[in-house]
Task: structure prediction
Amino acid sequence: MKRFLTVFLSIAMVLALAACGGGGQAQSSTPAPSTPDASASDPDASRTETLRITIGTAGTSGALYPMGVAMAETITKHVEGISATGEATAASIENLRNLHEGKMGMAISQTEVASFAYNGTGAYEGNAYTDIRAMFATINNYLQVFTLKNSGITSIADLEGKTVSMGAAGSGGELAARALLAAYDLDYTKVNAQFMGESDGSAALSDGKIDAMIATNPINSAALTELTTSCEAVLIPIDADAFYQAYPAYVPYTVPAGTYPNNDTDVVIPRSRIIMCTSTNSGLTDDDIYEITKAIWENRDEWASSAKSVETQTVWEDVLVGIDIPLHPGAIRYLEEKGVKVPDNLKG
Result:
């Protein structure tokens, strides 16, 4: 078990270093019309400049990109002095780096990756992102492995010697895929790893160019729906106790029979959570985060329909589910105003 965890943490360090060449869109302030006596000395007066922020999401084929874009539109519409834009990214690792460097105002992350970053473990040992703060939980994250029905592959162990899409290089999805292989005594010396986003991976599997695809996507995401309706793709179970013991951020989840075409039995796979984060380096004040959180949750109807998984899973009742890093004070203020009991361990 310790060997699995060691492999996972070592991999995370490599991925984080490899991703350092990328970057998000920096925030900037654009002067808005103002009068000479605008509120330089009055901290309670309205902002006299428009603060432009970026919300880091993920690839365009999943639910997180449209969710982020829709939330950005809600923020721009309802929060005075802030203009937000949703941006497609390589997801967790890139997003957390950009938050840490003050290049984004908000961004999504897999909860386990955010935990590594905040606590300075794994890839972040000696370089903890103690500035990262959670805002609220969004959708579930599922680790799914697909192959073709006639491939002869029925378990993760059967991937040895096969050509497998691991997700986009340097992404949180690839990190999860490597961890999965390690739990089954596999690594890149034992599989022919290919690095593709879910859309490209789905197309390659459908065309028979690869043997399997590992994806961290919502159930029935656009890419996976396209895959499973275009060919006889089936879901492989991930049920080894060693995996769940090594990576407790994941819990077993049963995908009911019939969820995907050609999948006529229940299949156990790992589930975790995607959380919305910000940073004390973002340039956003406690009041800003309070107003942003308020605008998002009091205008849920404006963004909830951005994806089916968002509508069903990003709900007020689960606003703190899966979060294990401190919440931003502005988010805490709004949540407690609304009667949410925030655990002490999330108050930093």
Notes: The longest helix spans residues 2-18. The longest strand covers residues 132-148.
